[in-house]
Corrinoid adenosyltransferase
Amino acid sequence: MTIYTRTGDQGQTSVIGGRVYKDDERVEAYGTIDELNSFVGQAVSLAEGEKFADLHEDLLLVQQELFDCGSDLAYVKIKESKYKVTSELWERLEQWVDRYEQENPKLERFILPGGSQLAAVLHVCRTVCRRAERRVVTLSHKTEINEDALKYINRLSDFFFTVARTANARLAVPDIEYLRSRKVFGNKS
């Protein structure tokens, strides 16, 4: 088997149901999700040992689901019955966020991305996830998409923010507060 097919030499690629140019909004959306998945793979490689066994497992599942998101967005014609991303996936992400957040110190100010190496990579995942979300929103203005895939990507960036903080907490590395931030989080009465 050869990896190269030469079918994209004229700037087009195959999607489910046809061919489009490689700079099409659809390709931009699922391509950014693919980029995110690569960074998640880097985070998986750093989430080692007993201390991060739960996170390692969760990130591996996220990688599978990112492939599902890309697949759902690759349909030229809407086929809801074939969608892989459902509300159960983003609802589970909410449960994960709530579970991990219990380990994190109270947050009052904006924080800088970083701290431990694992947290820094998870913050990269968060920002690439936000870019993927913007690309999916752009696509949604042009065509119908799986709305659950968009919700999943939105919740996923919250997950990455939360687990970046959890990684720091578990390693006893403090989050770095943005110096000029006012207190923006907490109880609003």
Notes: The radius of gyration is 18 Å.
